[in-house]
Amino acid sequence: MLWGRTVNYSLKAACAAAAVVFGLSGTATAQEADFSGERVELIIPFGEGGGTDTWGRFWAPYFSVFLPGKPTVVVKNIPGGGSTSGANQFEARAKHDGLTAIGTSGSTQFPYLLRDKRVQYEMRDWRVVLASPTGGVVYVNAELGLKSAADIKALEGVRLRYGSQGATSLDLVPLLAFDLLDLEVDAVFGMKGRGAGRLAFERGEVNIDYQTSSAFINNVTPLVDIGSAVPLFSWGAMDDDGNIIRDPSFPDLPSFPEAYEMMKGKKPSGPAWEAYKAFFIAGFPAQKMVFLPKDTPENIVESYRAATQAATEDESFLADREATLGKYKQIVGEPAERIFRQAVNVPDDARAWVQKWLTEKYSVQF
Length: 366
Known about the structure:
Elements: E1 2-6, H1 11-20, H2 28-32, E2 39-44, H3 51-66, E3 72-77, H4 84-93, E4 100-104, H5 106-113, E5 127-132, E6 136-141, E7 159-164, H6 172-180, E8 184-189, H7 194-202, E9 208-212, H8 213-225, E10 229-234, E11 237-238, E12 244-245, H9 256-264, H10 271-283, E13 288-292, H11 298-312, H12 315-325, E14 331-332, H13 333-343, H14 348-362
């Protein structure tokens, strides 16, 4: 178990907070909660350095500033089981007093959706306070000879290695994508998070990787700048009509459907594509979320939601968000509740197709 450090927020953020503190929590229900002198733990069920850890450490100081009473907020990393270990601990031990929250990723909800035997949490009962859309970028080792996404067909017949948290984690999306592209990818399971996968890439142990937007922006861009990594495509983003389009954080990279067309000469279609799209929607438009335990009193939930709303309107947050989180609007309140419900309800036929594929491809038993 790795304990995260207490995150210090900037003087600028503190000054900005002073002008609006409690401004959005003026209702009686929000004012009833008071975290003065308290320590709040934000559980991140992954190791340090990955996308969810980067995202959680960005958000922690803003919760500290905007929650009533300005509690100390620390990140507590509990890696293992593709995030199920930390989620199970949250389910079993977190009290309803608002002093423990959890920051999840698609790697937490996918095992839940697929009825993974390691899951001992009932995610639908948790109280969501924030949903953070994100994207992701696939990149390869420059030693493979590719210069850009335009060279993707050069990967035909090349043996690739990918460091994975597990087939039922959020890595389900890249593993399905690689299969749709007919890439020969050997998955090396057992990574404690995407940060571990990136480190394996840096050591030369794997030669293809993907990172969610925050981790790619902060940790992989330097590898691209020195010429050791070549970005190929992003997963893309959803438009209002449900189509996958280019990710606004990576407008120069093709989306996955575009990469598929570049590789195969036709647009993706068929049952495998429909299953991929269903889990992409479940995993990325609401990819990272902050929850409180079930039965948390409404005044505490509303205090968290008001704090989150206040943070998203703070000048310091707005100035720093893009460099860390990308160009994604953070979703709070009732919209977060709606997108959470969408994320934990994939079509039965897509779930059945993916379960069959996982059993045949990776011997996963359900």
